[in-house]
Amino acid sequence: MQNKLIIIIFITLFCAGYTASAQKDINTPYSRFNLGSLQPQGSFKSLGMGGVGTAMRNNTSISYTNAASYSSFDTLSFVFDFGLDYGRNSISNNGTNYISSDFNFNHLTMGFPISKGWGFAVGIVPWSSGYYKITDQVTSTDPGYDPSIGSYVIGHLGSGGISKIFMGTGLKITKNFSLGANMTFLTGQLTRTNQFVFSDFTTVFNNKSEEKLTINGLNFDYGLQYSASLKKNYFLTIGASLTSGKNYNTKYYQLASKYSAYGTIDTISYASDNNAKTFIPSDLKFGVTFGKKDKFTTEFDYTTSNWSASKIPGSTGFAADTRSFLFGAEFIPDKYSNYSFMKRVEYRIGAHTGDNYLIVNGEQLKEYGGSIGLGLPIRHIQASQPSMINLYLDFTRKTGSLANSLHNENYLTMGFSLNLYDNWFLKKKYE
Predict the structure, then answer these.
(1) DSSP single-letter state for residue 340
(2) So what's the pLDDT on residue 2?
(3) Residue 412 domain-assigned (yes or no)
(4) Is 300 inside a domain boundary?
(5) What is the Cα 4 distance to its own chain's centre?
(6) pLDDT exceeds cutoff 80 at 201
(7) Mean of the pLDDT values across residues 39-43?
(8) Cα separation of 294 and 308, whole Å?
(9) What is the count of structural domains for the chain?
(10) What ranges in 109-167 are assigned the alpha helix state H?
(11) Which of 128, 132, 258, 378 falls 20 to 30 Å from 103 in CA-CA distance?
(12) Residues of the domain holding 323
């Protein structure tokens, strides 16, 4: 056990440090607004099922979107999960396609029981991405060319992101009811730069503006679940979770300047506030799961958030209320088959549709997609240690009308996670 603990601590420290400095370098112009592109929340098991998880209870995986699920951890067990993902975004605009991709660390989570019916979990996951890179060159052949200005290049560059660190507990208060709470810490920085560089640099000033938004702060989300065992190994779980609205401590910096080819720099405008506030609104989720133990699971989730109430320094009027519908299913042909590996595999499928929180050019973006996933069991000497390799593939399409000068994005994500389950606290009878 001591060697296992050393390995876990090493991976934890490495991944936590890497996540704090890393960002997803997938180009999406929609990251220019508000807090960037919000990342889907949930384990790779749930993302392979369309992103459901509010009513998910599983003793071998961590469903951190509802802390009440932590009460399902087996006594004397330990669950460790870390994952990597690959993202590819294809942007289509007036018949032209732009493609970008990135491979990155995604998450690190751990969970274990405190006592029977009382569990604890901790982890770090991505919350938003602020990366984008847009360039446009205006020459004498373009309709908007002005001879008095000459040719020029417009550049827009965004970087950074926001991570979420959570620590929570879930407690079974009756045979059927469980309650839970996560303490979450959002931290990160978004940097945005806009630049106009003129070809006739000897007689004109180039323009540049920089903006930085740094966020830090604690918040809480609360969850409950009702789970009932039905006849013939069928079960029903109903769940709900609430993330409270919160004002986060924010440092905001904005500088606009002009500069010449000879080193002359002149400030156009400057603003700095180290005591600003960013208000992120509450988020409410409902979920219902029905299934048969060790055979199949189906879940439907509904989520809503009043993003129109958000307040973000440097951004005004670009957020709208959202609601989303998610559906997922999992099927296991024969969980305890001794002869067929494929029969022990967990097969997953899901779909999701809803609103994006962004309003661009007066239009709220929409998105929809589907996912598939696999849970590949890792055979142990002891069958009671069901570790798993989780794979998922998700396709999400963000849509905006060309009439409002918007574009569509086709986002493909592939994820790989190692979900380790072990009995760590049992004393050996024999050496």
Answers:
(1) -
(2) 45
(3) yes
(4) yes
(5) 28
(6) no
(7) 93
(8) 42
(9) 1
(10) none
(11) 378
(12) 2-423
User: What confidence score (pLDDT) does residue 202 get?
Assistant: 67
Measured from the Cβ of residue 383, the count of other Cβ atoms closer than 10 Å reads 10
Q: Which amino acid is at 125?
A: V
- Domain holding 302: CATH number? 2.40.160.60
- Both tokens of 7, joined, read 């390995």
The amino acid occupying position 103 is F
Structure tokens at 214: 């740094």
- The answer as to whether 343 is a domain residue is yes
Q: Closest by alpha carbon to 160, among 37, 41, 256?
A: 37
Q: Is 66 within 8 Å of 51 (Cβ atoms)?
A: no
- pLDDT averaged over the chain? 87
Q: Within 10 A of 39 (CB to CB), how many other CB atoms are there?
A: 20
The 10s digit of each residue's pLDDT in 1-36 is 444 544 455 455 455 554 444 566 788 889 989 999
For residues 102 and 26, is the Cβ–Cβ distance under 8 A?
Answer: yes
Q: Is residue 429 part of a domain?
A: no
What are the tokens at 406?
A: 């918007």
Express each pLDDT in 412-424 by its tens digit.
999 999 998 876 6
3-state helix, strand, coil in the chain (%, to 5): 10, 60, 30
In 173-233, beta strands by DSSP E: 177-198, 206-229
Look-up of token digits 């029969």: 343
